[in-house]
Amino acid sequence: xxxxxxxxxxxxxxxxxxxxxxxxxxxxxxxxxxxxxxxxxxxxxxxxxxxxxxxxxxxxxxxxxxxxxxxxxxxxxxxxxxxxxxxxxxxxxxxxxxxxxxxxxxxxxxxxxxxxxxxxxxxxxxxxxxxxxxxxxxxxxxxxxxxxxxxxxxxxxxxxxxxxxxxxxxxxxxxxxxxxxxxxxxxxxxxxxxxxxxxxxxxxxxxxxxxxxxxxxxxxxxxxxxxxxxxxxxxxxxxxxxxxxxxxxxxxxxxxxxxxxxxxxx
Length: 266
What we know:
Elements (H helix, E strand, L loop, with lengths): L7 E5 L3 H12 L3 E6 L2 H13 L3 E6 L5 H15 L4 E3 L19 H28 L9 E6 L15 H21 L4 E8 L8 H4 L2 H10 L9 H12 L10 E4 L10
Parallel strand pairs: 1-2, 1-4, 2-3, 4-5, 5-6, 6-7
Helix pairs in contact: 1-8, 3-4, 4-5
């Protein structure tokens, strides 16, 4: 259980996929730093990881507040001294902000959803990259790895259930950001990849989990998980992509969808 031994990993968020990933990273020997806006969630997760023998800390910030987010990242890096990995998990649905079908989508709803998901990735990643560029390469000659959060909905839409066009666009933009930045930083020893989950058990998916039509759809479309995917399955992929085992992998999207993208059924 030492796939991340002596490595420091930043995770944005403290519930769902973020929490599952933080637990897994710590169990594999990483020193984990959480960045999230809810202190109680962070503290509970840090206490849980500590009780299991892991090492975790946190700083709080609203990642949609760019100055506060960047200050939190800089403080986190200072506490860690070195940052070997970043998992950009924090984000969410834009429904409450007006996301929906394009003909109903307000400019404010679109901008807010893009800011929540895509802009926060940029805000957090920029200072991490600056730190990675300045630190010495590890034994593999690399300076760090970054993992972004996409969604299967960016490429495999289901209009009858998920007509949230700003959300899908925000995840498509993250895919482009991942590819272009991976190409730029590869020669500098920094890897950048993305995971694209389908319907996953998390706080964000509580509405969908409670909907009978979505539950039935998930069982048909995600047969490998017989419905909604456990967050731990996404954490397992994240562990690989942030570990030295993936040292030759960059610019890739790993889709964790239980079969969604290869099954032609509604």
